[in-house]
Design goal:
Blueprint: E1 8-12, E2 18-20, E3 24-30, E4 44-55, E5 63-69, E6 72-80, E7 83-87, E8 92-95, E9 100-104, E10 109-115, H1 117-122, E11 124-134, E12 145-149, E13 155-158, E14 165-170, E15 172-173, E16 176-177, E17 186-193, E18 198-202, E19 208-215, E20 217-220, E21 224-227, E22 231-234, E23 240-245, E24 249-256, E25 264-266, E26 269-271, H2 274-285
Antiparallel strand pairs: 1-22, 2-3, 3-4, 4-11, 5-10, 6-9, 6-11, 7-8, 7-10, 9-12, 13-14, 14-17, 15-16, 17-24, 18-23, 19-22, 19-24, 20-21, 20-23, 25-26
Length: 294
Amino acid sequence: MDNNLKSIKAVLPPPHFHMVGDGFRVHNFFPSLPEIGLTGMSPFFLLDYGSKWLVSPSETPRGVGVHPHRGFETVTIAYHGKVAHNDSAGNSGVIAEGDVQWMTAGAGVLHKEYHEKEFSRKGGIFQVVQLWINLPARYKMTPAKYQTIENKDMTKVLLDDGKSSVEIVAGEFKGKKGPASVFSPVDMFNAKLIKGAKVIFSFDKNYNTGMLVVDGEIKINDLKNAPENYFILFGHEGEDIIIEAVEKSTVLVLSGEPIHEPIASYGPFVMNTESEIKQAYEDFKTGKFGYLED
Ligand code: MN
């Protein structure tokens, strides 16, 4: 009997989807759901979840054209399909199935995100997560950077059943560390579980913790079930979380130390004050974010 189980605050079904550009059909779990809001998952600021979507073939890739970001990081995780990315810092790449792209917008970057050409031509199942991770005030104007984290670069911890594993993107699990470099403490894992597998995670009481069921169905703390596309928000009592896979499952696990600083956000910018938001628009209009061809 575990007397240090973390409380479950809510098991949330996916909100109705909306389109980002014409290429991303996403459910926004936060900040739009009132149960989570602007700070309930801090330092994670936004979770746009593109649940499995059958994309019809198109010679012209669907996506989002050139747009700016400042003050945070975007993390894109491809579960099905491929995303092509280009930014004004000169970085470009393809995020393939199982890969993660970790872009620090920091002081500012322009980028565009489209279905990768070949994927677009053939069509197929598309399933992608985009997270925005807030930056502490002192790092908001850090130079833009880009980390490509291919699946092979992730630290993989095999579980006792010999078939299930936990892939560490960022942070630490069972003494093993993930490859992402971060500006504040963040844990990000993919738990890939066979039916019946059990895994225990442990996170600091003060951290904000949540999980997204990307595939399958899980039972949490021997108490509550969460099916595919549901998000589990944990409370701040207790530290341990017991996950049991009701069927073969993939779970995105997120935990991090909250950033206790004011938030001013508008569109593609997440800053601390309204005047910093105004400045971001001014800098964007006057070309200070660089240049990127449409
Ligand atoms: Mn973007």
